[in-house]
Amino acid sequence: MKANDFRIGNIINTKLNTSLDEKNLKVIAIYPDRVILDLIFSEITLFYEEIKLITLTEEWLFKFGFEKHEDRYFHEFDYVIFYLTNKTYVLVSNYSDPRNDDAVRIEYVHQLQNLYFALTGQELELK
User: Fold this and answer.
1) Which of 90, 108, 111, 110 lies closest to 99 in space, CA to CA?
2) Dist. CA 97–CA 87, nearest whole Å
3) Quick one: which of 3, 10, 14, 114 has the fewest CB in 10 Å?
């Protein structure tokens, strides 16, 4: 992982064996060798090797406000559509085939947040 993999506001986790494990932490600052995460009353610094990425699941799509219709997940923008294929979410437009080689495959929550922002210019917020 590198600094340009993340944006402020990304949700990640930690590999450290602490009480923070399995908590979803929000990035508030990014440096070449580490990120700063928001805790309710303080902050924590994680070096990139200490970051545990959060696998994107249907549950996460629902947390971000996506709705499921048949085999697709929609958000408020018509062109932000996801299919679930082989446990990987694939972003396509209304007219694309999810098996297409140029479809964008997304494995982690922070990738969804980054791509959503790139497509819409808006942050993907938890509902």
Assistant:
1) 90
2) 16
3) 3
What is the pLDDT tens value at each position of the chain, 127 positions in all?
777 889 999 999 887 766 655 577 899 999 999 999 988 778 889 999 999 899 888 889 889 888 887 767 777 655 556 655 555 566 655 555 555 555 667 889 999 899 888 877 888 888 8
Amino acid sitting at position 54: I
Helical H runs in 1-127? 58-63, 109-120
Q: How many structural domains comprise the chain?
A: 2
Distances (CA, A) of 33 to 9, 51, 53, 58, 116: 18, 12, 16, 31, 25
Half-sphere exposure of 19 (CA within 13 A, CB side): 1
Evaluate whether residue 35 is within a structural domain: yes
User: Per the domain annotation, does 107 fall within a domain?
Assistant: yes
Q: Clarify whether residues 44 and 63 are in a common domain.
A: no
Rounded to the nearest 5 degrees, what angle is found at the Cα of 125, between the Cα atoms of 8 and 70? 130
> Three-state secondary structure along 3-14?
HHHCCCCCEEEE
